[in-house]
Amino acid sequence: MKNLRSSGIDLIGSISWGTHIGQLYTDIEEYYKTMIPFIKAGLLDNELCIWIYSNKTCYEEVKERLKTGIPDIDTYITGGQLLIKSHVEWYLKNGKFDADITSKHWSRHLSLALSQGYDGLRAVGDTSWIEINDFDKINIYEEGISKDITELPFIVACLYDARMLSTYEIAEIIKNHTFTVVRYKDKYKLIHNTGLQIKEQIKERSMEMYKRLVQFLPVSIIIHDETRIHMCNQSAVALTGLKSTHELLGKRLLDLVPPTLRTKAREHLRNAMHSSAESSYLQSEILCNCGEIKPVKIVTIPYGLGESNLLLSVIMDLTPFMRINELIEDVERHKQLLNLSLEYNRLKTEFFTNISHELRTPLNVILSVIQLLKLQSERLNNWDIESKYIDMMKQNCYRLIRLVNNLIDITKIDSNYFHLELRNYDIIKLVRDITNSVAEYGKQRGLYIHFSCNSASKVMACDPDQIERILLNLLSNAIKYTPSGGSIWVDVYAGDNALDIRVKDTGIGIPKDKQQYIFDRFMQVSSSTMTREKEGSGIGLSLVKALVEMHNGTISLISEPGAGSEFIIKLPIRLIDIEEPCRINSCPEFNHAERLVVEFSDIYS
Ligand code: ADP
């Protein structure tokens, strides 16, 4: 059943079902000219057609007139597709217009049309019989018809004798019809009821927008009653995990709730139905198609107009909120763990600092006593026997002091308590002096220590004490791991922006697979190196690396097992305006000679 119908009137063209045409005529000829083609189009288009004539004419006259445009009119009349009726039997009851009777006639004939296989109903009604007193009644009725037929397969044209109407009545007629046909100087004109059209357009547009809004709202909306869901939006389909709206329509809202929660849900729906427009909500669950259960909040309000039992339920998926709550709880838990670990770290640092100081104090006391004892034994001339033991004790004190110092410093560096005392200092002189100071020591172990540089001096910002520690560490390792007869080179190269210090030996070298871990804390190449001759804590190189990096420098290694190792330090050359204030780092109480003994304490002479 197509929606667009031919009106048969050139001026109008196609019309849709539900069109309500008005015609204002001043001469009866006018409406025959337009309405005969109008009815003919309906007959050709498989519509049941009715012509209702007024008191100004009669059945025979109408039939004769129609015959002029529809020659085979008798076939249509006998076939029952064209009915010609008098206004008296159609509109009137006891000689007066009766809206009820009229409406019944229309609806009975519309059903008749559809039951007999016609596409719909088309009618022409001459209303010019109206007595002036009945106008208000028929006006209200016409206004209703305009609204009622919009959705029906029904087209109707009403004819009005303009000569009998006041201007008010004419205006009302124009308002109540989709458009009105009038004659103007031998031609027909259409007056569009723009007010009605605009109203319809606005209604249609807002209906469309409302439908879209409901369809695309991120919450699920369901219109339902006890028996089934009548309407739902896309979110509702997505929530239930079904494939299409079609699958959800026909189910009950209760079918979506897990069986154990249905009693509560039923109660919620019953309460919503009997409460006022105020919403009530239910915290429940939805059983999805895939078997997953989603937590939801269901808000339900009565949606019915009049006696209807319709309910509107808005279903909100609480899964994201639950997830957010879980995340918030997670963050809170992690925050507590972090605080705990920060506190633990603080306590650990405090403990290390305290314990290291605790260790160092008695060591210093023991060392002082040993030195006194040694002096005493020299004076008493029993030096030979006791001196050997005293030296052993002293050596071990120095080793413990080195370990404690390294532990203190690594802990301080870790907790950002360690600071360089930068000064503009001649680093070449510094490195040369340190190298020279250990040369004699190396010689005693059969090692030759060489120094070379490309420049006599280079003043740059550095912490001389820490440069000394770096170098003594590297040199003590070189001495430790180079057999007698080998050589050690300390080479300084001052460029424009950077200074290289290389410490190279011809010692045992470092296995390739261990080279990448050599600067890691507590790393020792192999446990078999833990001999009395080569003891160590594995802290030295990690401390060296940390101190180099505090100078914004880098340290790297080239080593060949069996052929020797070369440590390369690169430091940026820069000067500072203000020298750092002196802070106390580790080992403040020792001079250079003592520091050397401490750093070399791992090596047994
Ligand atoms: P340690 O205090 O044990 O010497 P280091 O951090 O100074 O610790 O050195 C880590 C390991 O690197 C040492 O145990 C040693 O095996 C290796 N090593 C360091 N320097 C050299 C070197 N010049 N020649 C050979 N092996 C070295």
Q: Explain this structure to me?
A:
It is a single chain. The protein is of the alpha/beta class. It has 4 domains: 4-202, P-loop containing nucleotide triphosphate hydrolases (Rossmann fold); 218-317, Beta-Lactamase (2-Layer Sandwich), CATH 3.30.450; 322-414, Helix Hairpins, CATH 1.10.287; 423-599, Heat Shock Protein 90 (2-Layer Sandwich), CATH 3.30.565. Strand 14 (280-287) and strand 15 (293-302) form a beta hairpin. Helix 13 (319-379) packs antiparallel against helix 14.
List the helices and strands and how they pair.
Layout: E1 4-6, E2 14-16, E3 20-25, H1 28-44, E4 48-53, H2 59-69, H3 73-79, E5 82-86, H4 87-91, E6 92-93, E7 96-97, H5 99-115, E8 121-126, H6 135-148, E9 154-161, H7 167-176, E10 179-184, E11 187-192, H8 194-216, E12 220-224, E13 229-232, H9 234-240, H10 245-248, H11 253-256, H12 262-274, E14 280-287, E15 293-302, E16 311-317, H13 319-379, H14 383-414, E17 423-426, H15 427-444, E18 448-453, E19 459-462, H16 464-480, E20 487-494, E21 498-505, H17 512-515, H18 540-550, E22 554-560, E23 564-572, H19 592-599
Parallel strand pairs: 3-9, 3-10, 4-5, 4-8, 8-9, 18-20
Antiparallel strand pairs: 1-2, 6-7, 10-11, 12-13, 12-16, 14-15, 15-16, 17-19, 20-21, 21-23, 22-23
Helix pairs in contact: 6-7, 13-14, 14-18, 15-16, 16-18
Bound molecules: adenosine-5'-diphosphate.
